[in-house]
Amino acid sequence: MRIHIATDHAGLELSQTLQQHLTEQGHEVHDHGPVEYDALDDYPSFCINAALAVARDEAAGVEALGVVFGGSGNGEQMAANKVQGIRAALVWNESTAELAREHNNANVISIGARQHTVEEAMRFIDLFIATPFPGEERHVRRINQLGEYERTGKIAGKQVDEPVSA
After folding, report:
1. Fold of 2-152
2. Catalytic residue at 139?
3. Which residue is catalytic, options 58, 103, 120, 139?
4. What is the pLDDT, as a whole number, of residue 11?
5. SS (H, E, C) the chain
6. Of 64, 70, 108, 162, which sits with the fewest C-beta atoms within 10 Å of its C-beta?
7. Residue-level pLDDT at 54
8. Active site residue 103
């Protein structure tokens, strides 16, 4: 499987270790940055680029997932979720890693590098990759509603308020 990874300075060391781990497992790993430590770097572009790569691969029929890291993982998840078609989930334990796939068919996960050991992060990622999306109707329906709103600003048959205008 192709795995797209991005981080900020807080997750750089973890990212490098996990890239080696994933490569050793036979995955094709693509690093979207950064390549060196900079305490003032900005994670949004790194994470958005990783998410864009996942979305492009999915559109091309290539099996791909993404993993983004930061101090808490919150901002990195938010950045990835700005990309159309991306369902990025914040993962903080084994259960959330599995449920991200089983219930949400997440295609990107975010992990707080300052919140977990390397071993924990590896376990979360391994579970995320290994867990299939079973395709239960209720989950497919909800995922489709998210995609519909993302594309149109509406969900057919559901009350969705008007967005705030700028």
Report:
1. Ribose 5-phosphate Isomerase B; Chain: A, (3.40.1400)
2. no
3. 103
4. 82
5. CEEEEECCHHHHHHHHHHHHHHHHCCCEEEECCCCCCCCCCCHHHHHHHHHHHHHHHHHCCCCEEEEEEECCCHHHHHHHCCCCCCCEEECCCHHHHHHHHHCCCCCEEEEECCCCCHHHHHHHHHHHHHCCCCCCHHHHHHHHHHHHHHHHCCCCCCCCCCCCCC
6. 162
7. 98
8. yes
